[in-house]
């Protein structure tokens, strides 16, 4: 070995003939270097654990939410499509001017559209049918994204629709950012619906897309339409009347029985029925003309009574 030369970067290293020829100080330096570049099993385990904890920390970020609320005029629900999109664009303009004044960057918009829609792309959605008391002509069967984008462009707002989502889907995904164990998103408000995660392999209608069967897809249940055939849910005469007088009779059977939009009206119908029942004598001798107006009581009134 003493006759072999090792060359590196112009330097010549001549190995010693035996370990006995190596100075003790050099041996100790070599051992020190070995220790510097050696990671034992216990340390690797601690590194792995810390790496996982850092990943979890990064997935549990805190978010600041800035929101504004706008109450939509009732007449828009049965008006024309242009007025609807103009109203939404006007609300967006107010929000941008108040919260992003002077910001020239294009803002990505997640458009929560809480109605049954057919989606082939994330920024695309064809309205199947109106629900929750809406009945606006010229929208069903059409992609709603270009309609909103046209109203946004008319105001020259720095906004681009990045995604069209259902409110249940939005609730599910937003909650998963802060709680990784989230499995289902539910809405119990004006309407009633839920969304959950499902394996693509369990969704027959997507078979033609040849996707990874283990990939996850959000399923929008649209359970507000559960039992439209009226074979299972225990409907009352009040439920039947609400359905009969709604813009879309025969649709959203479950939603019309439990959702916030209809609970106040169910209560109103019960009160007027009791008033006309002479054996009960509720509101006897009182003028209930205002109570006879459909949807004159909203669900918040029921909450106030409960409190």
UniProtKB/TrEMBL annotation:
GO CC entries: cytosol; mitochondrion
Family, per entry: Belongs to the hexokinase family.
Reactions mediated catalytically: D-fructose + ATP = D-fructose 6-phosphate + ADP + H(+); a D-hexose + ATP = a D-hexose 6-phosphate + ADP + H(+)
Keywords: ATP-binding, Glycolysis, Kinase, Nucleotide-binding, Transferase
InterPro entries named in the record: ATPase_NBD (IPR043129), Hexokinase (IPR001312), Hexokinase_BS (IPR019807), Hexokinase_C (IPR022673), Hexokinase_N (IPR022672)
EC code: 2.7.1.-
Domain Hexokinase C-terminal, first and last residues per copy: 183-307
Pathway: Carbohydrate metabolism; hexose metabolism; Carbohydrate degradation; glycolysis; D-glyceraldehyde 3-phosphate and glycerone phosphate from D-glucose: step 1/4
Protein name: Phosphotransferase
GO BP, one annotated term: intracellular glucose homeostasis
Single GO term (MF): glucokinase activity
Hexokinase N-terminal domain segment(s): 60-177
Superkingdom in the source lineage: Eukaryota
């Amino acid at each position: 070995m003493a006759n072999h030369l090792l060359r590196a970067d112009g330097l010549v290293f001549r190995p010693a003939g035996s370990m006995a020829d190596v100075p003790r100080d050099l041996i100790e330096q070599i051992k020190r270097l070995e220790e510097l570049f050696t990671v034992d099993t216990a340390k690797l385990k601690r590194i792995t654990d810390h790496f996982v904890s850092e990943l979890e920390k990064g997935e549990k970020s805190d978010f600041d939410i800035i929101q504004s609320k706008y109450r939509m005029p009732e007449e828009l629900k049965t008006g024309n499509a242009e007025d609807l999109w103009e109203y939404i664009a006007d609300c967006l303009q107010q929000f941008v001017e108040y919260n992003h004044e002077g910001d020239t960057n294009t803002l990505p918009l997640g458009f929560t559209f809480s109605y049954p829609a057919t989606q082939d792309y994330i920024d695309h959605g064809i309205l199947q049918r109106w629900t929750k008391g809406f009945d606006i002509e010229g929208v069903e069967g059409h992609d709603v994204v270009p309609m909103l984008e046209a109203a946004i462009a008319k105001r020259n707002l720095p906004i681009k629709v990045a995604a069209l989502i259902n409110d249940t889907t939005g609730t599910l995904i937003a909650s998963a950012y802060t709680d990784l164990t989230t499995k289902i998103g539910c809405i119990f408000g004006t309407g009633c619906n839920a969304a959950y995660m499902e394996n693509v392999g369990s969704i027959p209608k997507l078979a033609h897309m040849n996707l990874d069967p283990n990939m996850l897809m959000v399923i929008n249940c649209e359970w507000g339409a559960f039992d439209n055939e009226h074979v299972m849910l225990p409907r009352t005469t009040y439920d039947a009347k609400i359905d009969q007088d709604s813009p879309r009779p025969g649709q959203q059977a479950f939603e019309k029985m439990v959702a916030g939009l209809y609970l106040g009206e169910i209560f109103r119908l019960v009160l007027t029925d009791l008033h006309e029942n002479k054996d009960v004598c509720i509101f006897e001798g009182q003028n209930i003309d205002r109570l006879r107006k459909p949807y004159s009581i909203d669900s918040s009134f029921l909450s106030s009574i409960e409190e």
